[in-house]
Amino acid sequence: MERASREIWAKRVERWKDSGLTAKEFAAELDVSAASLTFWKWKLKRQRSETTAPTRRTRRPRKRDEQVAQFLQLVPAMPTRAAGPLEVVLVSGVIIRVAQDFDDATLIRLVAALGGH
To answer: Are residues 23 and 37 in contact, defined by beta-carbon separation less than 8 angstroms?
Structure first.
């Protein structure tokens, strides 16, 4: 038995939808399996949604030494009136506790070394 093309299956699926019959009933009339009929219905629907779906923007690869701006939330470790220790919570959940007299450059290097995540 020769394999049917995509176009043939698309026509079969359309006729099946219009028929009001179950997959088993319609497949029996065509002498094909109900599983093949339902598979092609799924596959054709999936292909239509892929062609009409908006395309995703792809990221350009970053150069090794390229810096990427990321925002980190700084919150006091303990509620105090005076400026006190800080906690840096990275997206990954890593918490960096920062002393009151921290060195900016060291903190920046540490966050970069952790990937900023």
So the answer is: yes
Q: Quote the pTM value.
A: 0.42
Q: Do residues 14 and 44 both lie within one domain?
A: yes
Which one, of 86, 90, 87, lies nearest residue 70 by Cα? 90
Task: Confirm if 33 and 41 have CB atoms less than 8 A apart.
Answer: no
Residue 62, in any domain of the structure? no
pLDDT 10s digit of each residue in the chain, 117 long? 567 888 999 999 999 999 999 999 999 999 999 999 999 999 998 888 777 766 666 666 666 666 665 666 666 666 555 556 777 777 777 777 877 777 778 777 877 777 765
Number of structural domains, the chain?
A: 2
What one-character DSSP code corresponds to residue 31? Answer: T
